[in-house]
Design brief:
about 120 residues
Length: about 120
């Protein structure tokens, strides 16, 4: 079970990486841009809303089933969790998460605005 917990935490870290840096990678990739925008919207909803992230719920489930406590579990799990869940007040983490999502959505808005401006200039 601890391997499943590590896998879920690694997927969670990869998801956070996509949310934070996705706008840099998705340029001229419309399918990935759509996935990234949905991830951003989900990120805002998960930070602001009362619903827990499904990945967090899965992590907690597998850790509990594996009997992992505090730092008695896996070394990798411990350090991955420190990245995913920094030791900061919740309002700072939530605010930073929403800010990152807003900046990324702003990048998409800027791209759309520039494309619209180019189309108008071509007419």
């Amino acid at each position: 079970m601890i391997r499943l917990a590590i896998l879920v935490v690694a997927v969670h870290a990869a998801w956070l990486f996509l949310v934070i840096f996705g706008a840099l990678w998705t340029r001229r990739r419309p399918v990935w841009s759509a996935i990234h925008i949905l991830a951003l919207v989900w990120g805002i909803v998960a930070e602001v809303g009362p619903w827990p992230c499904p990945l967090t719920v899965a992590e907690e489930y597998f850790e509990a089933r594996a009997g992992a406590a505090a730092y008695h579990g896996s070394f990798v799990l411990h350090y991955l969790e420190a990245i995913v869940y920094p030791n900061l007040p919740g309002w700072i983490v939530a605010g930073a998460g929403v800010a990152v999502c807003a900046v990324n959505l702003g990048v998409y808005g800027w791209r759309i605005w520039r494309a619209y401006g180019r189309r108008r200039a071509a007419l």
